[in-house]
Amino acid sequence: MEYHRLLLFLLLFFCHSQLIKTAPSFDDNEFAEFEIADEEPQVSFANNDVKEEQKKVDEIKEDVVREAPKQTDPTEDFSFLADEDEFEQAEKDLETNQGEADTAGKQGDTIKPLTFADVPSHFRSNWSSYQIESIALFVIIIYVINYLYGKTKNYSIALKWFSDNREKLEQQFALVGDDGTSTEEMEGHLIRETEFSYTVWSTGRTGCKGMLTQIKLRKRQDLLGILLNIIRPQLDRVVHKIDMDPNEMDSFVLIFGQRKSVLRAVKEMHDLSVYVTEKKNFEKLQLLPSFCVYAEVAEIVPAIIDSTTVHFLKRCEKYIEYVHISDQYSGAKQQDGQNSSKLPETHPTLIFSFILNSDNDDTSIDELLLNFTFYILERVKNYRLSKEGKIRADRKRQNVQENFLKMTHQQRQEAAQVPAIIDSTTVHFLKRCEKYIEYVHISDQYSGAKQQDKEGKIRADRKRQNVQENFLKMTHQQRQEAAQIRREEKTRERKQKVMEEEDPDRQRRLEKLEQKRDAKAKQPRIKQFKIK
Questions:
Q1: Compositional bias (Basic and acidic residues) spans (predicted)?
Q2: How confident is the model over 196-219, as pLDDT tens digits?
Q3: I want to staple 176 with a disulfide (CB 3.0 to 4.6 A). Which of 111, 169, 318, 482 is the partner?
């Protein structure tokens, strides 16, 4: 966390320095503009000398041109053309005048060539136009540094967990760390799924096919993920998924753990959303207020969550997210709009989600969590439901299958009725006028709609009647199950009271009463009819 704060501080400091450099500088002198206006341009003396000499030469040329006299007689206008000596004399005078000008210029000061000083360009004036590029380059450098650091940090955390718990895993499984690709048995492989997810596969144990351990870490290599983690903190997790062999566990579904995590799992998982309900009448378990229990059958709660489990939950409260035990595990629930023609495949599975102790060098917590995983595994293997609980669980699974078949049958009927309404003409019209059509509602309860034929109306009435009957059957069954659960709880309380009775005579009398109740309950019920 300190490293991430340092990166953010450097980024903010660099941006602040660039903004200061780009800020315009203002002069405090209020009369600066008048001073600039009063300044006279400086002219070099060398340039003045050149201009004076050029003026002298021009004046001499004008004098030569003006020496020709004006002629009034038109016959003598072109008489000077016949005199060749006149042109020679003019050329001689021009040459003498130019010679005098050159000598006069040489006698004066010599003209020096113009020189330019090599003034170095200012560094700030060159780099000021590359500030956006420099900021982008600085951000890229920070991103690369953070990526390398986060990638190395996640790998070191995963490798540390695997090295600390490898010995315990090798005691429970014959093969630990198989890569899953080689034909020969390979051990000690920590498979990297992504930069923040690692897996370890362990197999070779009686009663289960194997255990897949997923180490789900924070996205430390992602700079954006770090910023989001500040707003919405996330934790490192270790998830153990154990696939049980068929007939190794009984028919029940159970989940317990932190209330927030359990509620999220109940909404997302298909088996939990169908089979389990919240169980609250377990004050004797003395669970923590932050924990909750969802179960299919009430009798499995005290059988799995015993005193040892409760003691462990209290000790490692902040490291436990949830424990999911199910013989009908099929993964996440289907999204809305996704229809399937058959039930999803189910298999008995145990899922343990723990918070990874990555910031602490104490490895005893990881060892306790792993021991708790195998303890629950053995209890699930050895536990069997009572006869009544087994009947209720099987009936529940049968009802789920029947409801699914009814739903798929209804969907097929609705799909068969669609082509009768939406034919090729309707489809062509919908494509042509797509942006003008909002919806079309057709209902048998609308007074203006066309009535169905006689057979279709009979089928629709029968369908509505079946829906009502199924609802009544389901509610009646739920009432019977609730009454049966209450009777079982009362019977269990009476038996517990008999076991806790200290007086042997009173205990004997209570046992006889319980035997009479059991015998009466087992007798077949006879209905009497009066015939007049």
A1: 484-521
A2: 899 999 988 888 889 999 999 988
A3: 169
